[in-house]
């Protein structure tokens, strides 16, 4: 009896040891996943992308290659008295001096990275202006614009200070006590500050290192600030890892608005408006609604009349578009609806960051381009 009891105790310890090993292994792998930006929650582990060669589809973007100037953002000792020329005449890469500040983590010139970003990207001529009015006078910024920092913005994303975009902290803004409706973003969520070879230095928030090439293209004749005009930007995808649609990055946070969530019983009748999602095998095109009469491909291609009267053609993604010319083609069989078709990435002057101007409630201006057309 005693031996049986001892054997039972031994078996119990063995079982506890196995469970501890399993839990320890799980926690270790979870920590690795957290260190990699929780890539295993919403993405593959990203390893297939790490060796990819990325072509800069919007050549000339700042924070890349020769245009990555350390002293624009970092200072070694918290002060500067002169420029690299050894003078104070204003030449060189340092915009203003003498200059001093309280030293900040990562040697940044500002305590919060958002304040560092907007020190250039708000009201500085010759630099993309992403806060409210545009000092550069563009007709329409392709990414739209934010409200002021730390202001709750019903017309787009909330841009906030004090945000940690590492590991599970990114998820906690919305999940487990976070509030999706009031959650804020930081510039570093979506843009790689040191450059990654993607246009606009775009990246997955949850797995920056795993970001595939993204199909945002700029017209070849555009230069300077005109590269940020909506009219000079087009979107393409090859539906695979060689080139994803740029809104593939949106699904990190907005994953319940794409994929099978839009047609949960897979019967072709959508419960939510479809948004192009090649990663999950849910592309779309304007022709798909023709069989039920929910879209009007001919009206979309014509680009005149109802929906186009006073409203520019909404942005679209072109399946097979690999440069500005091929992504800019109007073809109802390859033109698809992506997040940017209806919403500006940063925000706009309209509620929900819509790309067209609304009066009062949501009107049908942009909707009619694909759906009702002349027949209503």
Verbal overview:
- It is a single chain.
- The protein has about 375 residues and is mostly helical.
- It has one domain (about 35-60, about 130-375).
- Helices cover about 20% and strands about 5% of the residues.
- The chain contains 10 helices and 8 strands.
- The protein has helices spanning about 1-35, 40, 70-75, 115-120, 170, 185-190, 295-300, 325, 340, 365-370, and strands at about 80, 100, 160, 185, 215-220, 235, 315-320, 335.
- The longest helix has about 35 residues, at about 1-35.
Offer a few descriptive terms.
mainly alpha; globular; four-stranded mixed beta sheet; 10 helices; disordered N terminus
Q: Would you spell out the secondary-structure blueprint of this structure?
A:
Blueprint: H1 2-35, H2 39-42, H3 70-73, E1 79-80, E2 99-100, H4 113-121, E3 158-159, H5 169-172, E4 184-185, H6 187-190, E5 216-218, E6 233-237, H7 297-302, E7 317-319, H8 324-327, E8 335-336, H9 339-342, H10 367-370
Parallel strand pairs: 3-4, 6-7
Antiparallel strand pairs: 1-2, 5-6, 7-8
* CA-atom Rg in angstroms: 25 Å
* Count of discrete alpha- or pi-helical segments spanning 4 or more residues: 10
Give average pLDDT, whole number.
81
Assess the beta-strand content as a share of residues.
5-15%
Please describe the biggest sheet, giving its number of strands, its sense, and whether it closes into a barrel. 4 strands, mixed
The unreliable regions are 1-42, 44-59
Strand order of the largest sheet: 5-6-7-8
Structurally, the number of domains stands at 1
Distance between the first and last residues' Cα: 87 Å
Secondary-structure element pattern, one letter each: HHHEEHEHEHEEHEHEHH
**How much helix is in the residues?**
10-25%
Class computed from helices, strands and strand pairing: mainly alpha
- The rough form would be described as globular
Let me know the number of strands.
8
